[in-house]
Amino acid sequence: MRNIRLTYSFVLLIMSFAAIGSVFAQDGASGITVEVGAPISLYVNTATGTRLDATGFGLTCQQAGAVDFSVSGTGGTYEIMPGTALTPGDTCLVSVFLDGVAANNFLASVTLPFTVAAMTEPTTTPPPVTPPSESDATPTRTVSACPETMVGTTIGAIQGSGATFALGNTQAITGIVTADFEDDGDDATSDLRGFYVQDAGDGDDATSDGIFVFTGADERFVNVGDSVQVTGTVAEFPQRGESETQLDANGTGIVVCSSANPLPALVKVTLPFASADARERYEGMLVTFPQTLTVTELYLLGRHGELILSSGGRLPQPTNIALPGADAEAGQQANDLNQIVIDDGNITEDPDPISFPPPELTADNTVRGGYTVTDVTGVLTQSRGRATNNGNSTIAYRVRVTTPPTFNSAPNPRPTQAPDVGAALLKVASFNVLNYFNSFTITPSGCFLGGHLSASYCRGANSQLEFDRQRAKTINAIVALDADIVGLVEIENDEGDNQAIADLVAGANGIVGDGTYRFIDTGRIGGDAIRVALIYKPAAVTPSGSFATLEDVYPFDTNTRPPLAQLWLDNKTYEQFYVVVNHLKSKGSCPASANDENADRGDGQSCWNADRVLAATEIADW
């Protein structure tokens, strides 16, 4: 019998108590091979300071029933010695639990079958069980043979057909890694710290077959194409009223069974969605949009690395094509079903580089509204585009792309020169200079707001470097417009020789020649940190009289930038005309009270509409 190794099978039962994280077998792979008369060697990964004794283990077998045993070891490494010889081929159960609590609610149950095998006595001793170090408590990526049968439950059973999970608590899944957003080795704070897994499906089209596995670790456990078994806690990751179903593995409970497996077939999805809840069935799944989609919004491209796409061209603002109320609301609902966010998978704010368009956004490689893209492919999920749950991050269904999208500029090419307006006698333009401040937060005197000066009121560039970039772009664009009069919006509301508008005009004249442009020197207008302004070419027009404004009239004296009016004389025809620059109250920063007349009425006009209407009326009557 000395040349025969008798083996028997074990099930490792890991309890769902916070103090136990995982159990490692001596062979670390397909099961525990134990010679008759030899101890069962285990490493139990527990919380710091947790110590197990004989009351923390149990040993039962199908044929032998409850088996007496003794336990030795400490610090996570233990040996269980059966008190009687076990029958070859018997199936046994090792239970690990705390404080004498019965093992009736387990983290994972994995049957590891073995049969009696005759083999030559090994000439080497199997390696000892080595517990993870304190600095590396999470196992690194290893590939282990796994049972052919599925472990645990289907992902569809966990996801269910509703907005949140149908099966909670601790669950185990088996599937293929379809997208990997673990630590990329650069900046872990920018990564999702997890990956997406998809299984063969439960046959129900109303349930998703994919799920996000959150590891919470700054290391990598898997690669795309790995077949994995994952054990973790089901949770909804909350995000301002919405949530994404995920399996929290905490960096443990992840077993890689094999690598380089084919990915699940792409699920074809098209816009518009049939209903608002039709998107949930794809959460966490690998999808493709086999259609041409249009870039309809770029607002958060630089901030969060995301774009909004739509089908059938760019989406109109509902109140641009329909009256406020039911018609505009219907238009908004149609827009909501006809759009999808594409996301770079980076959750840092102001990512550098910006991934869209691939390989990265540059001055020579840009994307603009109206560009199109086909066959968008990636994992469809519901989440925000940044790490923190505040600010202007969007909570939306999005595709975290796994295939770099290719954008087509032909539908809306970027102009190489200003539009030809024909043989116009005069050219008048408006230009939002996007908080053009030549005072920064580090400027001792700060910026003006409501009659006071403070560095916190400065809304533009934070440094000279940032301002130099903004200044060059803005001035070059104004020069390229070549307009005779330009109404400016969002320029710093300051005064004096070094005011922002004087700096802008000096920069433009530095390109086209001294005296080409001048500005109407109004000084500060209103109480906001920004104001409207006018610049002009004295060779084409001459101001007639002084400027006029409505800064003492409501709502311009409260929460709306006062308009600026100027009478002009055409130097060629000697005709006179007025130009009025306006910047009405924006739709954000809503009133605190829902009863305020400026609150969002749900008619498509958002907040402050009453003041915008009043401002427009005052300007028209003026």
Largest sheet: 5 strands, mixed
Strand order of the biggest β-sheet: 6-5-9-2-10
Work out the helix count: 7
Rg calculated over all Cα atoms: 34 Å
Measured as a percent range, the helix fraction is 10-25%
The count of β-strands is: 33
* Low-pLDDT segments, ≥5 res: 1-31, 45-51, 98-139, 387-391
Strand-pairing-aware structural class: mainly beta
The residue-averaged pLDDT reads 81
Query: How large a portion of the residues is in β-strands, by DSSP E?
Result: 25-35%
- What gross morphology would you assign? elongated
Distance between the terminal alpha carbons, to the nearest Å?
Answer: 109 Å
Describe the structure.
β7 and β8 form a beta hairpin. The chain has 7 helices and 33 strands. It has helices spanning 155-159, 301-304, 318-321, 326-337, 464-481, 500-512, 609-621, and strands spanning 4-5, 9-15, 20-25, 40-46, 57-61, 65-66, 69-74, 77-82, 91-96, 106-112, 117-118, 170-181, 194-198, 210-214, 227-239, 242-248, 254-258, 267-268, 285-297, 306-311, 339-343, 372-384, 395-401, 407-408, 428-436, 447-449, 452-454, 485-492, 518-519, 530-536, 541-549, 561-570, 576-583. It is 11% helix and 34% strand. α5 (464-481) crosses α6. With 622 residues, it is mostly beta strands. The longest helix is centred in the C-terminal third of the chain and has 18 residues, at 464-481. The relative contact order is 0.07.
